[in-house]
Amino acid sequence: MTAALPRLNRASRPAGKAPVRIVHLGLGAFHRSHQAWYTQHAGDAGEWGIASFTGRRPDAADVLAAQDGLFTVVERSDAGDSFEVVGSIVEAVDGANVGRLVELVAAPQTAMVTLTITEAAYGPGADDVPLLVSGQEPTTPLGRLVLGLAARKDADAGPLAVVSCDNLSDNGNVARDGVLGIAREFDGGLAAWIEANVSFVSTSVDRITPRTTADDVALVGEKCGYRDDAAVVTEPFRNWVLSGEFPAGRPRWEDAGAVFVDDIEPYENRKLWLLNGAHSILAYAGQLRGHSTVAEALADPVCLQAVEDFWDEASRHLDGDELGIPDYREALLERFGNSRIAHHLAQIAVDASTKLRMRAVPVLRAEREAGRTGEAAARMIAVWAAYVETNAGLQDPRASEVEQANQLSGLDRIAALVSLLDAGLSREFAVVTLIHRLGQAFAAQAQPVAVSGNPT
């Protein structure tokens, strides 16, 4: 149906392109629904264009480039859909085009580099160092960023900010450590320049953005009268909390509702534990019980109880009235129960060994330090262990080690899996036996069940 429609383009739109002042690594649906949306809604949006680079594949850049960077944000709720064209991305580039990335990072008008490269991409960049030393192009996002910063130093283009928008605790410092770790091995002078001239901003980001389907693309064509192969579907809710310095300036994101704080850790933990932690529980427990989306899993009383129990544990370690934990939990139930947002559990389930390290382990440790068992946090690990036992072809940075653990049995298998999350916990017999017992108990009730309705 949409093939005969004109492609979305800027020719029919009066607003011109803003100059590139933000370079983004990780061009995907979330970036488009979140950072690009906030930038479009900043009061000074006309001064802040984004050049967005893809990660592993060029597809998203090819599609967006054909539309001159324009795309539609579809906000979907039980009340209906709304449609908005976003034009803050003014250049969409294949991530393999390292030369263009280096050119833009080194440009004096570039004020920041933002990142949505997934949690797994912040690992050690040792493989990039010999490539940098030999004058070859790095292959990882942080390695490519280091090359760009080297060019910026050589061009004397001034300071800038690096803004991590991935689901990591203290993500600004994690990005800083990753960048400096590569830079120190490559060029000590560059590392010193980065320490003096580059700020690393921490953020907490939140907007549920499932994969766009062919039906979604067709709906945009029907309702808007143009073809948009880069449309994104998202919930009406959005949240962005930032902490850090912007030495070369930034958009007025606060006009769109972004919040700037001195201490971001409580907000990060609220998001990582309550939202992302619940997602992990639902991803594994829900699929084991035959569900495919967040809304379906949350309507299952067994899955809902596992989420509520974990929230009770995590909330004990989230202090401060400004966090509004009761209201936040209630809002999450409403958001998760939005049956028109098909947030697929299989999508959430990837990269578990990285995610659970930040979502389950801190709560489990905090509970045990307080003299409690941490049973609900342990259950998150237990349902993951049950899930990986029966699912081949895992998308996980440590998939081979998960497969090796699966060759073991009983407590030995659980200990090996827990060691991928936290070596210390894997040596605690009480923790391993608790996770093993919870996994067995869940397996006994893991048969699919028929559910209906919205638990909120």
From TrEMBL:
Q: Where is the Mannitol dehydrogenase C-terminal domain?
A: 263-430
Q: List UniProt keywords, sorted A-Z.
A: NAD, Oxidoreductase
Give the matching Gene3D superfamilies. Answer: N-(1-d-carboxylethyl)-l-norvaline Dehydrogenase, domain 2, NAD(P)-binding Rossmann-like Domain
Keyword Kinase recorded? no
Question: Per the UniProt record, which EC number(s) apply here?
Answer: 1.1.1.17
InterPro entries this protein is in? 6-PGluconate_DH-like_C_sf, 6PGD_dom2, Mannitol_DH, Mannitol_DH/Oxidoreductase, Mannitol_DH_C, Mannitol_DH_CS, Mannitol_DH_N, NAD(P)-bd_dom_sf
Chemical reaction(s) catalysed = D-mannitol 1-phosphate + NAD(+) = beta-D-fructose 6-phosphate + NADH + H(+)
Q: Which residues form the signal peptide?
A: none
The segment(s) forming the Mannitol dehydrogenase N-terminal domain are 21-254
What terms describe the molecular function in GO for this protein? fructuronate reductase activity
Q: Name one Pfam family in it.
A: Mannitol_dh_C
Q: Does the keyword Aminoacyl-tRNA synthetase apply?
A: no
State the family named in the UniProt similarity comment for this chain.
Belongs to the mannitol dehydrogenase family.
Protein name (record): Mannitol-1-phosphate 5-dehydrogenase
Q: What is the lineage of its organism?
A: Bacteria, Bacillati, Actinomycetota, Actinomycetes, Micrococcales
